[in-house]
């Protein structure tokens, strides 16, 4: 057992050491400007991106964008919304997205940091808002993003409310961002929380889930650590009205959840078939 504990601690230290430190300067407006036409064309054709009511986001200043999250480790909702935000507000407006340590530390995904993706921790979140940026967070994290596909239209943060305190401390409004379609990019069968505990991944990798899914090109896909080829599912996103943080945390959280679920329900009601939209 001592040997196993030492091996797990070594793995944790290796991963932690590879997580980029908080550095908002890695976001590169020139890079985004160059990549935006091609990537937005891809999003428009492959995911038939439909993003509504970006005008509800304050035109300037810091704001906390809170979304429901779908699509496993290749979440098309983040991809589509980031491109839509940069197209609508311009690449010069600072905009950051929080992501799991494993995402920002993976060498093949270094380009994401140029788009403003930073490790999901309190330090980075505070730095982004203090700099006057818009910040996109997904409080549901891996719990929500790996939910079974038959729960695809359920908003579920697993009771997490830390984002409310973040917004309160920073003095910024919360803008809910509802989306549908991402959980149809593969067939997610089980969150695999039992498997994460069995393999101690919840301790070493901060992974609360090792999901089980059916996905291209793997067929049966365990963990989704290698990602997957998302099906060309239609991604529909609706920005909701801003919510001021003027009550206790639970009251504000309840407003955000109600707003998101109402938005998801509206988008889902317009959807005739999975993937096709």
TrEMBL record:
One matching Pfam family: Acyltransferase
Q: Which part of the chain is the Phospholipid/glycerol acyltransferase domain? A: 63-182
CDD domains linked: LPLAT_MGAT-like
Q: What GO terms are given for molecular function?
A: acyltransferase activity
Keywords, A to Z, come to: Acyltransferase, Transferase
Q: Name one GO cellular component term.
A: membrane
- What name appears for this protein in its UniProt entry? Glycerol acyltransferase
Q: What is the source species?
A: Mycobacterium cookii
């Amino acid at each position: 057992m001592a040997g196993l504990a030492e091996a797990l601690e070594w793995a944790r230290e290796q991963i932690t050491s590879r997580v980029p430190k908080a550095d908002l300067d890695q976001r590169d407006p020139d890079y985004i400007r160059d990549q935006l036409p091609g990537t937005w064309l891809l999003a428009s054709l492959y995911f038939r991106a439909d993003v509504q009511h970006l005008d509800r986001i304050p035109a300037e200043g810091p704001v906390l964008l809170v979304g429901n999250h779908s699509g496993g480790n290749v979440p098309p909702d983040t991809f589509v919304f980031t491109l839509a935000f940069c197209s609508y507000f311009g690449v010069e407006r600072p905009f950051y997205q929080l992501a799991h340590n494993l995402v920002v530390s993976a060498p093949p995904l270094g380009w994401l940091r140029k788009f403003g993706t930073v490790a999901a921790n309190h330090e980075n979140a505070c730095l982004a808002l203090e700099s006057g940026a818009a910040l996109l967070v997904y409080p549901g994290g891996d719990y929500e993003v790996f939910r079974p596909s038959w729960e695809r239209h359920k908003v579920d943060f697993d009771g997490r409310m830390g984002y409310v305190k973040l917004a309160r401390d920073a003095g910024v409004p919360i803008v809910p961002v509802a989306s549908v379609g991402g959980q149809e990019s593969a067939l997610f069968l089980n969150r695999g929380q039992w498997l994460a505990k069995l393999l101690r991944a919840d301790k070493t990798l901060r992974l609360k889930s090792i999901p089980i899914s059916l996905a291209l090109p793997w067929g049966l896909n365990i963990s989704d650590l290698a990602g997957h080829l998302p099906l060309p599912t239609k991604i529909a996103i609706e920005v909701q009205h801003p919510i001021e943080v003027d009550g206790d945390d639970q009251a504000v959280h309840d407003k955000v959840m109600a707003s998101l679920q109402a938005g998801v329900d509206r988008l889902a009601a317009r959807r005739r078939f999975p993937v096709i939209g």
